[in-house]
């Protein structure tokens, strides 16, 4: 790669620091930016700076926002008695894209992971309990991951909320729609059997 000018090598180096971008992809992207009109390159650079300058955590749900409250928390049509607990802002976006949830969110910013030194004080469990204590929340939907950390975080939160007059539910998990049973892993199939329901 030493045959490129220093400015291109510098761009490749910085692009390759992005997650999932290897050196070859970074090279391809850098050359694409070079061939693009100056206006497009300027807009890309400006949008990166703008994200760093403007985006912050919503003061209510801890999602990503350009202002104090995100669009969801400031939407008066959302059901304020229903709160969906997720691990990260990207999880909230995934639930929103499904169109199946019209309540508010609470983003933990992680999960319990004693092996990594992450305990209850390292994620936003205390803030969730404060929301529940305000008596406006009637149901908390736990939508953490189905891995060991996500499950243990959901169990921990459910136990902490037992003393409050709030319904605590967990998103369903199991065999995906259109899934062929012979290709489903044993853990997923076991979970599907345990959470079976009437039809």
Short description:
The protein is built from seven helices and six strands; from the N terminus they run H-H-H-E-E-E-H-E-H-E-H-E-H. The chain has helices at 6-15, 23-35, 38-54, 89-98, 125-133, 148-161, 186-194; strands spanning 56-57, 64-65, 79-86, 103-107, 139-142, 167-170.
Structure description:
By secondary structure, the chain is an alpha/beta fold. The protein folds into two domains: 6-54, Orthogonal Bundle (Helicase, Ruva Protein, domain 3), CATH 1.10.8.420; 76-173, Dna Topoisomerase Vi A Subunit, Chain: A, domain 2, CATH 3.40.1360. Helices cover 41% and strands 13% of the residues. It has a four-stranded parallel beta sheet. The protein has a two-stranded antiparallel ribbon with strand order 1-2. Helix 1 packs across helix 2 (23-35). The longest helix is centred in the first third of the chain and has 17 residues, at 38-54.
Give the topology, please.
Elements: H1 6-15, H2 23-35, H3 38-54, E1 56-57, E2 64-65, E3 79-86, H4 89-98, E4 103-107, H5 125-133, E5 139-142, H6 148-161, E6 167-170, H7 186-194
Parallel strand pairs: 3-4, 3-5, 5-6
Antiparallel strand pairs: 1-2
Helix pairs in contact: 1-2
Number of helices: 7
- Order of helical and strand elements: HHHEEEHEHEHEH
Q: Would you count the extended β strands for me?
A: 6
- The outline comes out as globular
**Which structural class do you get from the secondary structure elements?**
alpha/beta
Global mean pLDDT: 91
How far apart are the termini?
Answer: 61 Å
In CATH, what is the class of the largest domain?
Alpha Beta
Which range does the strand content fall in? 5-15%
In spatial order, strands of the major sheet run 4-3-5-6
């Amino acid at each position: 790669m030493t045959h490129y000018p220093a400015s291109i090598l510098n761009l490749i180096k910085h692009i390759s620091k992005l997650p999932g971008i290897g050196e070859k992809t970074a090279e391809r992207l850098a050359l694409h930016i070079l061939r693009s009109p100056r206006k497009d390159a300027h807009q890309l650079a400006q949008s990166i700076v703008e994200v760093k300058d403007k985006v912050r955590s919503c003061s209510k749900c801890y999602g990503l926002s350009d202002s104090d409250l995100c669009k969801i928390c400031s939407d008066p049509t959302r059901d304020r008695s229903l709160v969906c607990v997720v691990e990260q802002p990207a999880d909230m976006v995934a639930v929103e894209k499904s169109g199946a949830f019209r309540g508010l969110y609470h983003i933990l910013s992680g999960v319990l992971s004693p092996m990594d030194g992450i305990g209850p004080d390292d994620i936003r469990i205390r803030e969730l309990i404060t929301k529940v204590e305000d008596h406006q929340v009637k149901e908390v939907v736990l939508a953490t991951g189905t891995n060991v950390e996500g499950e243990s975080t959901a169990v921990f939160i459910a136990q902490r909320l037992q003393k409050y007059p709030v319904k605590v539910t967990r998103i369903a998990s199991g065999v995906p729609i259109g899934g062929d049973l012979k290709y489903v892993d044993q853990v997923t199939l076991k979970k599907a059997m345990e959470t079976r329901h009437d039809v």
